Amino acid sequence: MIIEDQDCLKIVESFDKTGFNYTLSLVNGKYKLTILYAIYRHKIIRFNSLQKYLNIISHKTLSSTLKELENDNLIKRKVYPQIPPRVEYSLSKKGESFIPILYKMCEWGEKYIE
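-> structure tokens emitted (114 positions)
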């Protein structure tokens, strides 16, 4: 299937002005899509549970990636004032709107997995 000049795939004067580039700028990184998927699967998840679930990412990398996702408004971070502090992560409205894209990626992967 070839897609001909649909709105988001139209030719523009430079790549940095495309919706495609903007989307990539939000999810570009080794673990961002994986973290979004994990938070979606759990709805609300704490840092240690997320790290155990992923089992592939260091504490420092997870922490910095979560901060980037929060700064880009894709996830929400809720801190409970208790000792020790409890922090939970969930998808923001913007993050939830990205789930259909993750779903399509999953569908594509299921179709072509070998």
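The longest strand covers residues 75-80.
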